[in-house]
Amino acid sequence: xxxxxxxxxxxxxxxxxxxxxxxxxxxxxxxxxxxxxxxxxxxxxxxxxxxxxxxxxxxxxxxxxxxxxxxxxxxxxxxxxxxxxxxxxxxxxxxxxxxxxxxxxxxxxxxxxxxxxxxxxxxxxxxxxxxxxxxxxxxxxxxxxxxxxxxxxxxxxxxxxxxxxxxxxxxxxxxxxxxxxxxxxxxxxxxxxxxxxxxxxxxxxxxxxxxxxxxxx
Length: 217
Ligand code: E4P
Description:
The protein is α/β, with parallel strands linked by helices. It has a single domain (2-216), classed as Aldolase class I (TIM Barrel, Alpha-Beta Barrel). It is built from eleven helices and eight strands. Helix 9 links the parallel strand 7 (163-166) and strand 8 (185-188). Residues 6, 26, 28, 111, 131, 133, 135-136, 167-168, 187 line the site of erythose-4-phosphate.
């Protein structure tokens, strides 16, 4: 399973990249605003800064909601850097724009996906990635992980190549469960990745190994 980090914070992206396990980055307008990145030029520059830190795909989201606007914005984003993936909302014009870009060999990520039917449409439109938001479903007492399982089942039935990018991942158990269910990618905060390192028996064991080494030296 590929690990993407879901942030626009350059320090956190660097930290995950330095671990050697990072496969890409996802961003959205809210994450940009959280870092205080506002204004089109600053946002575009920030995407390039992110691409210069990581080796993999970097999702950059359009803010237009009509087909022409999405195509215009998406083409400008794709020009920025070869690692840019055009992130499009799961609405009718977003699906149309997804088909437009996939027909031209430009990578896409269909975002704000909350149902298997939406994921089926994204795959039919040739999306590179589909982003089911599992945390936001959990927030409203609906099993987000079940959506990953349903999409996996449907995609496997027909051999769709669209990669399932489990989004809105909130914690380590989401990451582990996504891996069990066969999600292709997960995107989450740095804490959902570094949390995987932790086990008290590792800490206790390491402490004892080091203490025993010292006894003999
Ligand atoms: C997906 O690409 C989104 O950026 C993201 O995962 C949303 O997560 P949230 O529900 O924690 O805001």
